[in-house]
Amino acid sequence: EAGVAQSPRYKIIEKRQSVAFWCNPISGHATLYWYQQILGQGPKLLIQFQNNGVVDDSQLPKDRFSAERLKGVDSTLKIQPAKLEDSAVYLCASSGGSYNEQFFGPGTRLTVL
Amino acid sequence: GENVEQHPSTLSVQEGDSAVIKCTYSDSASNYFPWYKQELGKRPQLIIDIRSNVGEKKDQRIAVTLNKTAKHFSLHITETQPEDSAVYFCAAQPGNQFYFGTGTSLTVIP
Predict the structure, then answer these.
(1) Among A98, B11, B46, B55, which is most exposed with the fewest C-beta within 10 angstroms?
(2) Under an 8 A CB cutoff, do B89 and A91 touch?
């Protein structure tokens, strides 16, 4: 089966600029996650969708981060404006198979200068 | 919410030896415990998982054990090889959300 797709793979921006990331989950997976992984740390959940509804966004910095899941399939995560501390890898994951395993996309490495 | 602790943060072993990574969790509602391997610059890959209705699961050189009473679970890698070198993350799932440990950097010395 095809895996989780993400784009772009790399992005370099200046602070205060805006950036958007895209994710296409595994076909049929109802649950989609966005994680932030700072170098040397484990993934930190930013937002979780079940179909097109938000299940948990308690750790999403809502003053600058936003996310949506169009028609319960693809999702976009936006940062506006970016700060230096937003430099990280942004991982998208999906789950929903028979055993609810979670599968990760390749991630987007964001560098904020 | 759930709190997952992982030890050690770094681990070096000689090729052929065994490696053990331990995690503890706090929420008794957690019922699914996956382990991920993340090589440098790559995505986390699911390598093995265990559900709360079993105490041990094995897949070739990798095994996971779960002690629900003590709320801890462990990853065991036997006959380690250089390609096992990576960062390993444990996770616990109560409900729909996954909570990750802080990772263990494993180095297998040839």
Answers:
(1) A98
(2) no
Residue A90 CA to residue B83 CA, distance in Å, equals 25
H or E segment and range at residue A56:
strand A53-56
Let me know: does B92 contact B30? Beta carbons within 8 Å.
Answer: yes
Beta bridge partners of B32: B51, B93
**Per the CB < 8 Å rule, is A104 touching B44?**
yes
B:21-80 residues touching chain A, CB 8 A cutoff: 32, 34, 36, 42-46, 49
What is the pLDDT tens value at each position of chain B, 110 positions in all?
789 999 999 999 999 999 999 999 999 999 999 999 999 888 999 999 999 888 999 999 999 999 999 999 999 999 999 999 999 999 999 887 889 999 999 999 99
Backbone angles phi, psi at B35, to 5 degrees: -120, 135
Strand partners, A99: none
